[in-house]
Automatic annotation (TrEMBL):
Pfam families: NMT1 (PF09084). It comes from the Bacteria. Residues 59-267 form the SsuA/THI5-like domain. It comes from Devosia rhodophyticola. This is ABC transporter substrate-binding protein.
């Protein structure tokens, strides 16, 4: 199978025409209306998942609940976006959102299609992505997947899986991908419609809550790659007012992430308050499992990072070099041209002791306080293929 056939020749013109609700449009020549260089009228962050009812964005919800955004004079909106895997970059590019949250593969796909975006805050220091298998069918030797079928929720996710496999020596031309739909690709795996499925940390716990109990090759344990990042229009970083806003916005996010490391269950509480249906679907214990999985990804080795959101430029360069070899991009990319750490200092300039004290003082509801967080932490990787 041609490794690009699933993405169907999405050049810049047709790429911008693809939209779940027809929101992003293009002329016959591929032109689009862009946001003008003026202060944000309404700052919008857009999800890559087609939903906000997950624990992944815990840093925002606890930061909002604790008043960190308000204290910094930041007013922002969260949007779920279409489930199309490329929407999170597409909407930012045309000015219908201001910050997206793509995987590295989707970010590189945007760059390949001429989108003038930059990664401003690297959320996921470790690789969140994994491969799910039916019980007893998993493997830690990814080369055994050659000739087999991997299920995806969106065709665009192939740009996530290809480099993940390639760095482990897999011939990706021998992999068959099937778009099994959002949110049904996990159900499709359980029903036998494929050999493996893309998954990620946090989702593992949510799938258990949905009755989907798999075993996993875990990227967080075995991959040299990393997870999603926050991207903005490159031109916004040249505008002093927007750059100041972005620094304050990301500072509030950093405070939320810092808070959650000190009191994970308080962050779960903030998300559950926002989305009661999620709380009823997964409950306190799986909520704890999900958030601990994700905190592990977002922190990485903080002794080697210059704060929340810091880009490891050498690691990013390795990623771009690998996907160039895969012909996922047609021209080499210099990491420092498309990733920036200029906001990381300002984003981490907050009173860390105060945030820690806030976390310690937080009063949990009884059902969340009853969770033995250390016991949950000790079982985080029980689903890994042995």
């Amino acid at each position: 199978m041609d490794r690009f056939s699933l993405l169907g020749g999405l050049n810049r013109r047709t790429f911008l025409q693809v939209s779940a609700a027809g929101v992003v449009t293009a002329t016959a020549l591929g032109g689009v209306g862009r946001a003008q260089a003026e202060p944000y009228s309404k700052f919008t962050w857009i999800s890559p998942r087609g939903t906000l009812e997950v624990l992944d964005d815990f840093g925002y919800w606890i930061g909002k609940k604790m008043g960190y955004f308000d204290d910094l004079g930041v007013e922002a909106e969260m949007q779920p976006g279409p489930s199309d895997g490329t929407a999170t970059v597409k909407f930012v590019d045309v000015g219908q959102a201001d910050m997206g949250f793509p995987s590295p593969g989707i970010f590189s796909f945007a760059l390949e299609n001429g989108m003038k975006l930059k990664s401003a805050y690297h959320w996921g220091a470790l690789d969140t992505f994994s491969l799910a298998f039916r019980k007893g069918e998993g493997t830690n030797d990814l080369k055994t997947l050659e000739g087999k079928t991997i299920l995806l929720g969106s065709a665009a996710w192939q740009s996530i899986v290809d480099p993940m496999l390639a760095v482990h020596g897999v011939d990706i031309t021998k992999i068959k991908y099937v778009e099994a739909g959002w949110p049904t690709w996990g159900t499709a795996l359980a029903a036998g419609q494929g050999d493996a499925a893309l998954a990620w940390e946090g989702l593992r716990a949510e799938w258990i809550g949905s009755g989907l109990d798999f075993e996993y090759w875990l990227g967080v344990q075995r991959s040299p790659l990393f997870a999603n990042t926050y991207v903005v229009r490159a031109e916004d970083l040249e505008d002093p007012d927007k750059k100041d806003f972005l620094a304050r916005y990301l500072r509030a996010w950093s405070m939320g992430l810092e808070f959650a490391t000190h009191n994970p269950m308080a962050a779960v509480d903030a998300v559950f308050e926002q989305f009661p249906s999620l709380a009823s679907n997964i409950g306190p214990e799986l909520g704890a499992t999900s958030i601990l999985q994700q905190i592990n990804v977002v922190r990485g080795d903080m002794s080697k990072r210059k704060g929340w959101g810091d880009h490891d430029m050498a690691a990013w360069q390795t990623f771009f070099d690998e996907i160039y070899k895969l012909e996922q991009i047609s021209n080499p990319i210099k990491a420092e041209d498309v990733c920036t750490n200029e906001l990381i200092g300002p984003a981490n300039e907050f009173d860390h002791d105060k945030v820690k004290a806030d976390a310690a003082a937080y009063e949990l509801p009884a059902e969340l306080a009853a969770v033995d967080i250390e016991a949950v932490r000790s079982h985080l990787f029980d689903q890994a293929v042995s």
